[in-house]
Amino acid sequence: MTPLTAAQAMASAAARLRAAGVDDPGRDARILLAHAARIEAARVTLIAPEYLAPEIAERYEQLIALRAIRVPVSHLLGEREFYGRRFKISREVLDPRPETEILIEAALAEPYAHFLDLGTGSGCILVTLLAERETSRGHAIDISEAACLQASANAVLHQVQDRARITCSDWFKGVTGRFDLIVSNPPYIARAEMPGLAEEVRNHEPVIALSDGGDGLGAYRKIAAGVARHLKPGGRILLEIGPSQGAQVKQLLGDAGLRDVRIVPDLDRRDRVVIGVAG
Question: Is the pLDDT reported for residue 1 higher than 70?
Fold first, then answer.
């Protein structure tokens, strides 16, 4: 293989990724080169004129080959940034999305001491809410044992494990007591919508974390059915939703006896979080 400079390797990689249909090939080529060279992405410009060492070139080739078949960048890096912190992830858990930070902001808008995270996945919501409120305690639930292990690892990584309880269970089945905050980013993609998802999502993220296998509202019905037993008076529930589900989830929470039910939009003005308050 003819030695290439970092700049030449990036240009070639970006062309391959563009041909493979990757959305932002230049960015991904840069991030993956930094990972292969084991440097910060901001330093890639500094090595651009230099020839790549054979071991770096080989690692980079492997990473680009995987990205070209649409393996997500976060899976190749093994981590994803969320609310200013880096979380370890794998294909066993949902990749944290920037949209979920809307739920975090809404949760932080009012005090909480003891909260419940339903369907914790990577633990990004659990860990973030614990880290942002240093006296709070959190109980996280997930039906996936692999997800519970990943959430536990992230709690340790960010040193909040002493205030976190993580249980492998199905929604409220493993839950006792009442909380002043319940949060969830449940599977909300309808079965009929699954074929239209990006390849990175459809082929590389756990289906159980994406869809209920029905109309996308199954998880909300289960949560609404049990929420009254687990919220303290005046306690809040925050649910992330798909952009078209606001009215239906709002109705479910209203029918469950919650008051002041409202919808919070994301930065693109799409419905993103439904909030309700226990009477």
Answer: no
How far is the C-alpha of 112 from the C-alpha of 183, rounded, in Å?
12
For residue 218, the tally of other CB atoms under 10 A from its CB is 16
Alpha-carbon distance of 182 to 278, in angstroms, equals 11
> In CATH terms, is domain 91-277 a member of 3.40.50.150?
yes
Query: Residues, the chain, total?
Result: 279
Q: How many angstroms separate the CA atoms of 186 and 67, rounded?
A: 27
Beta strands 114-118 and 164-168: pairing type? unpaired
106 to each of 145, 238, 245, 277, how far by Cα in Å?
Answer: 28, 8, 18, 13
Predicted TM-score of the model (pTM): 0.87
**Non-local CB neighbours of 128 within 8 Å, separated by 6+ positions:** 82, 83, 85, 104
Q: What is the pLDDT of residues 2-27, one digit of tens each?
A: 788 999 999 999 999 999 999 899 99
Alpha-carbon gap, residue 189 to 206, rounded angstroms = 12
The owner of tokens 């993956």 is: 32
Q: Which residues pair with 47 in a beta bridge?
A: none
Q: Which of 121, 126, 118, 141 is nearest to 239 (CA)?
A: 118
Tokens of 5: 């400079």
Helix (H/G/I), strand (E/B), else coil: 240: strand
Which residues of 13-160 form beta strands (DSSP E)? 79-82, 85-88, 114-118, 137-142
Cα–Cα distance measured from residue 237 to residue 234, given in angstroms and rounded to the nearest whole number: 10
